[in-house]
Design goal:
279 residues, mainly beta
Length: 279
């Protein structure tokens, strides 16, 4: 039996999800409690400490199943969308509430306390955040929390983008952040994930997972728009047959560059292209 990946399966020696009983060893198995992310961006960390490694981020409105909450205010759980497991602040979570009706389609949008853009905003929500509409018109959507969001920055849940490369291009210049997946900072696989999810495609979180799960192999010499180029620990998106876009630590940003230059630079640092996948 293949070992389960702890990044996407909720188990530790002392505690595991009830659904994994018989598949893993743990002192206790629990059902878990459904919760919803109520902060704009919540860091999902490798350990219950604010200085622990950031593995990924949970976005406003995202669903999570919590298996443990510590006295120090940390929750250990599994995200519903991509199944990632980790620790986040318990203060970032609230009751599940109603199912989301809309999602944020702007790179970043502001929430106002009333339908008046001259008022100081009360929150800034990232691309892909889920909200529940209480009412709305052609200018503002009022959420179940009483926030007022610009209607043009939202789309109904289930309304998908048509070109994931164009989605990725909206993040050009955004800073590089390991584990990030918003315009405030994102990494290579985070950029791929949020872009594909915007088009209604299921996408794992990390680049090795993406390489294993997405697309069919094609030769590097036949590169076309939308192909994914993989290295060990890195992924880029082809904009066309000669250029790519990726969040990378060389530029410390989401940047577009000639594919040949990026491939040569990464090879010089010891990294060979491991595959090209066509979706």
């Amino acid at each position: 039996m293949a070992a389960l990946d702890p990044r996407i399966n909720a188990f530790r020696p002392e505690l595991a999800a009830k659904s994994l009983q018989g598949q893993v060893e743990a002192k206790r198995f629990v059902e878990g409690t459904p919760r919803r992310v109520i902060e704009a961006i919540a860091g999902l960390r490798r350990a219950p400490r604010s200085d622990a490694a950031l593995d990924t981020q949970a976005l406003y409105g995202e669903s999570i199943t919590v298996y443990e909450t510590t006295d120090e205010g940390w929750a250990w759980g599994q995200l519903a969308r991509d199944k990632y497991v980790g620790w986040l602040s318990a203060n970032a979570l609230g009751s599940p509430g109603a199912a989301p009706t809309h999602k944020v389609t702007a790179v970043r949008t502001l929430a106002f306390p009333a339908p008046d853009i001259k008022l100081p905003p009360v929150a800034a929500l990232p691309f892909g955040a889920d909200i529940v509409m209480a009412r709305g018109d052609d200018k503002f959507v009022t959420t179940d929390t009483g926030w007022h969001l610009p209607a043009r920055h939202l789309a109904r849940t289930g309304a998908n983008e048509g070109d994931f490369v164009a989605v990725a291009e909206r993040f050009m210049g955004s800073p590089y952040l390991w584990g990030g997946k918003t315009a405030e900072g994102l990494d290579c696989s985070g950029l791929v994930q949020i872009s594909l999810q915007a088009c209604g495609m299921i996408c794992p979180r990390d680049s090795d997972m993406q390489e294993a799960a997405l697309g069919q192999p094609v030769p590097l010499g036949r590169l076309q728009r939308g192909d994914l180029i993989f290295w060990k620990g890195h992924v880029a998106i082809a904009r066309d047959s000669t250029t790519l876009i990726h969040a990378n630590a060389h530029h410390m940003a989401v940047a577009a560059e000639p594919a040949a230059e990026a491939i040569a630079r990464i090879k010089k640092a010891g990294g060979e292209v491991t595959s090209v996948k066509r979706l």
